[in-house]
Amino acid sequence: MLNERSMELYKEANQYSPGGVHTSIRNVEPHLVFTKAEGAYIYDADGNKYLDFQAAFGPYILGHNYKKVNDRVIDALNRTDLYGVGSTDLEIECAKKITKHVPSAEQVLFCNSGSEATYHAIRLSRAVTERTKLIKFQGCYHGWHDYVARNMLSEPHMIGKRDPGSAGMMDEAIDNTLICTFNDLEDVERTFNDNKGEIAALIVEPIPHNIGCIMPEEGFLKGLRDLCDQNGTMLIFDEVITGFRHNIGGYQNVCAVTPDLTTMGKAMANGFPMAAVAGKKEYMQRYNTYPGGDVWFAGTYNGHAIGTAATIATMEIMETEPVHKHIFELGERMRQGIREIHDRLGIDAYVAGFGSVWTTYFMSFEPKNYTDLMQNDADLYIKYRKKLLERGFFKMPMNIKRNHISYSHTKEDIENALQAIEDVLKEII
Ligand SMILES: Cc1ncc(COP(=O)(O)O)c(C=O)c1O
């Protein structure tokens, strides 16, 4: 794989931006500079073509540069953009669609990133409950702000301990966020009991995709709902990844547990910057977009025509075409195919996934939480992904990262990927 041009450009990128990238975890080896994206494929500056499973961490549910979405955005921009006052026709249409499909969304507000959405949801929960503490789970990611940026991909000795993700964070924010173990209701109950009447919200990725794909055990999400109800705590489903990707109404529509608040982003606009916070009307009307509301909600770019048009187009395609059927079928074929390869080669590994998402953990049992993932052979995981990348199959070469299938992937793409997986695994063992 040639990457001379990428290396030249990377050097240049480093002159102007620290590390040459604009998000921390983008700095992986080999460092590639990308110049083109189309459907299921991405291309780098040296002309290498990759079948993309990274999907920019999840937004591309339909595929890159998806024409029907891009056309809607271009049409919108030919007539409208952003006003900073009043409402727009596109905002209304978009909000109507989301409240129609997402069970918890009686009302919705738009912002531009998942981090903004979780920030707004948490602040609202504090205003509603008049409490300060928050529960999150070890390994889950809810954005970069101080309220939630702790105990993400913790080192083994820091699991469950005080593990802020950044220098410069406020101690008050770190210490008011309590950490629990996913799939462990007793741990959550104990935490509630130890902090009686103090917990404003419990925020959870209903499937923690930031550590691959850990499935919630039967009754876990319902148990969280019950514990929140018993303790007067707001349940926030962070559906920034699961929303729209697993179901047009979010994973809450699949698991039949309705949170008080939901945060959305990524797949909702097929790659355009767009996010949302939604919930029960009685809570949403605390935001000061509503006359008399006392919870600040603002953003210069909120409701921009680009994001609203892209979301309407993406949701319309999900409503009228077999998007989820297609990506779920390919996801199932991928997982099954990899399991068969493991059986043939005698490899002891666990293939995890749901719908269009999958990953292979190099460990012998199904992980239930972040601690279990310490059994994953990280070196092998990264080596395996690097070798696939060299063959033109893009899975980010970083530990415990998931892969995504889009509506633009074909059966042939999946069969080709399976062949490459078999070849690479034969080479490795
Ligand atoms: C579950 C979840 N919540 C929130 C975020 C933050 O979203 P953004 O990167 O758009 O700020 C992410 C980003 O990966 C995420 O995976």
TrEMBL record:
Entry keyword set: Cytoplasm, Isomerase, Porphyrin biosynthesis, Pyridoxal phosphate
EC number(s) reported in the record: 5.4.3.8
Cofactor(s), names only, from the UniProt record: pyridoxal 5'-phosphate
Report if keyword Cytoplasm is assigned: yes
Q: In which pathway does it act?
A: Porphyrin-containing compound metabolism; protoporphyrin-IX biosynthesis; 5-aminolevulinate from L-glutamyl-tRNA(Glu): step 2/2
Q: Which GO terms describe its molecular function?
A: glutamate-1-semialdehyde 2,1-aminomutase activity; pyridoxal phosphate binding; transaminase activity
Instruction: Give the catalysed reaction(s), semicolon-separated.
Output: (S)-4-amino-5-oxopentanoate = 5-aminolevulinate
Query: One Pfam family name from the record?
Result: Aminotran_3
| GO BP field | porphyrin-containing compound biosynthetic process
Which principal EC class is assigned to this enzyme?
isomerase
Keyword Cytoplasm tagged: yes
What the entry lists under InterPro entries is as follows: Aminotrans_3 (IPR005814), PyrdxlP-dep_Trfase (IPR015424), PyrdxlP-dep_Trfase_major (IPR015421), PyrdxlP-dep_Trfase_small (IPR015422)
- Family matches, as CDD domains: OAT_like (cd00610)
Tell me which PANTHER family the record gives: GLUTAMATE-1-SEMIALDEHYDE 2,1-AMINOMUTASE, GLUTAMATE-1-SEMIALDEHYDE 2,1-AMINOMUTASE 1, CHLOROPLASTIC-RELATED
Q: Of which family is this protein a member?
A: Belongs to the class-III pyridoxal-phosphate-dependent aminotransferase family. HemL subfamily.
The cross-references to NCBIfam families, in alphabetical order and at most eight, read: PRK00062.1 (NF000818)
Q: Please state what the protein is called.
A: glutamate-1-semialdehyde 2,1-aminomutase
Q: Which organism is it from?
A: Pseudogracilibacillus auburnensis
